[in-house]
């Protein structure tokens, strides 16, 4: 929840639902203020140092401070993000073991909407912490303009944002509910605001369809993000351009839970979708990490993937893994061979700290086959190239035919080394409904041969060319898809995976242009041979 920014996705991971409702006792409020623990090889305690299980009939004001209004009384009109709501205490209710924050179309002062925002600061039973595991089991809202967040800011510091830092544990918008964001924000001043963001997406459904456990483990000089006890991102000072900007260790942080309406990330509000709710089953803080899993949770059909335990403190561990089709292992890692259906990866482990059971549901992507050839650079041309930044030759001999690509004729593209964002614009009528690509029911494929380094990114961006201009990004851009090269100087068939839903005001039916971006945000002049530009479906 920060001032205006263009989110930069630095990593892409995949996940699938694994949520289990667990209620644990609350430790005495006297332990709510936690001194910095020594992380070492500490056995995890299943007793939280702070918890709200929301078992009462109202928000526990001994633990939570309700922040009221449009932010102006805090010196942050619009809460620093151009938000459109006035926060009201009445919009946060507790019943049936759940906290519910409701966003409504309701005028208060100059604001047309109301919602709620609450924090653990300034309360005897609340708290602020340095290091630990911070988690909440949450069901996020749907509806364009809904912006939910579970996050942390430093307490009682005279150092302003962003120099004092910010940790976003869970952040999502209703119109992009297939994506969840985890971020840190830092920098020496407002004019030097920097951030690192990782996102994790879900197909074919969305995060808002069910409760999920969103958590962060903050240890000395490392912050890691998890969903449903599955690790998906880690940041350290070495990820920053200037490691000295890592100031998180200088402060204790408190928790914030809120749902904004509109704003810089929330975007355009669909008032017809209101009311919308953000629900929390619990919020907990633990002194130390707990064992979790690591591994891909969306996989390609007929492939293998490896899973492992992270944050395991105990020694002398034994492992009992199980997977689909009777697969099992007693090693500390587990490689699963997938067919065409998903399943559950389960682990029971016992070590010097005790016994733990973890599991994760894995989705296998649909089996896709070519349904539309966009361009084979020989006889079929269902895309018309209208502009290129580099040099495109649509008919050259194949530089190295092999079993992946034995075409006689392919395209050759020399990237413009003077341009950070090199574009190949193509007009097409072959994407009448882009929702199939958001769900993973269709995908773009492209054969690539290049001497560029393994891992070089290529992006396909779906656009409405009648709206998108060079100066109005992201307006008119429907969505973006990412692939990375896997070999050097050899043909490879790349599948492009969903990377972002950009302008949600660009309808699924409005796409009439595909833009290929080769190694974006670099100044490289590599040569790429391209072929079999295609759509695969099922």
UniProtKB/TrEMBL annotation:
Q: Tell me one GO biological process term.
A: carbohydrate metabolic process
The UniProt entry, under Pfam families, shows: Glyco_hydro_16
Q: What is the lineage of its organism?
A: Bacteria, Pseudomonadati, Pseudomonadota, Betaproteobacteria, Burkholderiales
What is the native source organism of this protein?
Massilia glaciei
Q: Per the similarity annotation, which family is this?
A: Belongs to the glycosyl hydrolase 16 family.
What keywords sit in the KW lines?
Answer: Hydrolase, Signal
Q: What is this protein called?
A: Glycoside hydrolase family 16 protein
* Domain GH16: residue ranges: 37-291
Check the UniProt entry and state the signal peptide residues, or none. Answer: 1-40
Q: Where are the transmembrane segments?
A: none
- Top-level division of the source organism's lineage: Bacteria
MF terms in GO: hydrolase activity, hydrolyzing O-glycosyl compounds
């Amino acid at each position: 929840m920060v001032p205006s920014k263009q989110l930069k996705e630095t990593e892409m991971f995949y996940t699938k639902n694994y949520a289990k409702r667990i209620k644990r006792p609350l430790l005495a409020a006297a332990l709510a203020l936690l001194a910095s623990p020594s992380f070492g090889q500490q056995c995890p305690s299943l007793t939280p140092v702070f918890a709200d299980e929301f078992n009462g009939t109202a928000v526990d004001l001994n633990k939570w401070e309700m922040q009221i209004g449009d932010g102006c009384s805090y010196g942050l009109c619009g809460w620093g993000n151009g938000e459109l709501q006035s926060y009201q205490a009445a919009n946060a209710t507790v019943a049936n073991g759940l906290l519910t924050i409701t966003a409504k179309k309701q005028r208060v002062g100059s604001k047309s909407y109301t919602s709620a925002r609450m924090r653990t600061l300034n309360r005897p039973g609340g708290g602020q912490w340095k290091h630990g595991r911070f988690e909440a089991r949450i069901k996020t809202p749907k509806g364009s303009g809904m912006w939910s967040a579970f996050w942390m800011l430093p307490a009682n510091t005279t150092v302003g944002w962003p120099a004092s830092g910010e940790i976003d544990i869970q952040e999502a918008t209703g119109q992009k509910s297939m994506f969840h964001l985890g971020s840190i924000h830092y920098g020496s001043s407002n004019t030097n605001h920097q951030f690192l963001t990782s996102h994790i997406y879900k197909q074919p459904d969305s995060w808002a369809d069910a409760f999920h456990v969103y958590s962060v483990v903050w240890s000395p000089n490392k912050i890691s993000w998890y969903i449903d006890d599955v690790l998906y991102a880690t940041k350290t000072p070495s990820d920053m351009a200037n490691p000295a900007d890592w100031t998180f260790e200088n402060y204790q942080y408190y928790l914030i839970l809120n749902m904004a309406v509109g704003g810089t990330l929330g975007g355009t509000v669909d008032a017809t979708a209101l009311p919308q709710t953000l629900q929390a089953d619990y919020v907990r803080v633990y002194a130390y990490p707990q064992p979790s899993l690591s591994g891909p949770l969306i996989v390609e059909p007929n492939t293998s993937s490896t899973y492992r335990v992270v944050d395991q403190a105990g020694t002398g561990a034994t492992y009992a893994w199980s997977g689909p089709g009777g697969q099992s292992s007693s090693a500390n890692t587990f490689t699963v061979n997938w067919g065409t259906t998903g399943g559950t990866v389960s682990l029971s482990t016992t070590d010097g700290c005790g016994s733990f059971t973890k599991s994760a549901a894995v989705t296998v992507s649909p089996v896709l086959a070519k349904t539309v050839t966009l361009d084979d650079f020989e006889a079929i041309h269902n895309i018309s190239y209208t502009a290129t930044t580099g040099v495109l030759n649509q008919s050259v001999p194949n530089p190295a035919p092999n079993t992946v690509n034995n075409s006689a004729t392919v395209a050759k593209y020399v990237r413009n080394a003077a341009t950070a964002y090199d574009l190949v614009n193509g007009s097409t009528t072959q994407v009448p409904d882009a929702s199939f690509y958001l769900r993973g029911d269709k995908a773009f494929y492209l054969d690539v041969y290049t001497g560029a380094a393994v891992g070089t990114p290529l992006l396909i961006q779906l656009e409405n060319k009648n709206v998108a201009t060079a100066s109005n990004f992201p307006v008119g851009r429907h969505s973006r898809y990412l692939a990375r090269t896997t070999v050097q100087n050899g043909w490879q068939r790349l599948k492009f995976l969903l990377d972002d839903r950009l302008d949600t005001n660009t309808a699924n039916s409005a796409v009439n242009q595909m833009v290929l971006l080769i190694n974006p945000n670099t100044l490289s002049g590599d040569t790429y041979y391209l072929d079999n530009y295609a759509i695969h479906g099922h």
